[in-house]
Each structure stands twice: as structure tokens, then as C-alpha cells.
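In this supplementary section we document a worked example of the pipeline. Step one takes a protein sequence of length 249 as its only input; no multiple sequence alignment statistics are reported here. Step two produces a three-dimensional model, which step three serialises into C-alpha cells for compact storage. The input and output of this example are shown verbatim.
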Amino acid sequence: LTVVQQWQICSSASNIATNCALLTIHCLIFYISSINFTASMANVEDFRKLMKSLIVCSKVAGVEMWTAPGKLKPASYYLSFHITVYFVSTVWTLRKYIDDPIHMMKVLITMGTAVQLYIKFFVAHSKAQEVKLFTVELEQEVLKRYQNGSEEETAVLRRTGRILWIVHRLMSASYIFVAVAFGLYPAFYYFATGKVMPLFLYELPFFNVSSSLGYAVTMGFQINLLAIGVLGAILSDFMFFMYAMYAMA
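The serialised model returned by step three reads:
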């Protein structure tokens, strides 16, 4: 490619990236503006609405702490399969590029996050009964007991619930938008260099990413794993924050 052609490619990629960034910002602003900051969530009904979103995340992540505590569901095996393939693929890729330490370090960038989330997966299964019992106690002993209490008691519930509701919406939005922005990186890279690259740098064994089929399978697997990981991160991070807030209230 000539210098002019390279400049045109980079300019086009820059314009696309700018437009995507502006679109993402507009979506984020619209999402935040739709939040009802006066929502109180000081009663059982509002608390259950919040729990519904966490239950959906738990079903996708294969950790049904509230609907099937301690039981391995199909989604649990599905996630374990993906994680197993991820670890095998990472080892296979490291052996393939053993003479390229820089590339090996790039491949290992996601290893820490994957290990952390998978540890949380097992911890959530082992503590599922306790989480469910704590949720029931929270609903019965705190919300039902104090939702019609004194003005000071209901004020504490309203303040805690409002904070949780806002944090949940903002956390979900930020995690999802970051994942989408990260998922667009291969497209930016292609428009800038004319070369294709997977979402993550590990390669599936026996699938050549330079072929159309190999690239499609690799990208499908990686996008799927990214989506599950994002929902799992939202579930674990917000659940910890929620219980901590009610414990301090």
C-alpha cells in the first residue's frame, strides 16, 4: 500500500471509530437520562424487581443461586465447557508462539480475569444456599418489617434502595458498553490495517484464524464467552455491593 492509501484507510477507520464512539455516548446519555432517580425501592415489590435482573444473570451464568441453589444446570455445563476450551486454547496458543514472548504475554492478558470469574462460579455454587437464605431474611426481616415503619426507618430504606437501583443501572450500562466497544476493536483493526484479527489472541486448536471458517468459529466462541463473562461480572459485583449496602443500613 502507498502512503496515500494507508492514510485513506486510517482516515476511514478514524471516522468509523469516531461515529461509533459518538453513538455509544449518545446511547449512554439516553440510558442515564431514562433513570428515575426518585425511585425509592423501599418495599418488597421493588426489591423483587431488582432481583429479577440478577436471577436472569444467574441463569445465563449457570449459577442459579435463587432458583436452583447448589445445582448444576445446563448453563453450568455450558459455561464449564467454554472455560475448559479457553484454557486448552490458551495453552495451545502459548506452545505455538513459544518463541515470541511478547505475543505470549498478550495471550495471557485475559487469563487473570477468566480464572477469577471461574473461581467465583464455584464459590457461588458452594454458597448458594446461604445466599438464598440471606436474601429471604433480608426480604422478611428488613424490608417487610420496616417498609411501613417510622419515618426514619423508611428513609433509610429509600436511600439505600435508591443508591442500589442507580448503581445497578449504571454498572450494567458501563459493563455492557465497555464490552461492545471492546468487541468492535477487530473491526477498527481491519479498517486500519486491512488485516483480520480475533477478539482475543488465543486460538482454538485445529482452527486456522486466517481461514473464513476458522475465523468465524473463533469469533463466535470468543463473543459468546465475552457475553457470559460480562453478565457474570455484573451478577457477582452488584450482588456483593447490594448485600453490603443492606448490611450497613
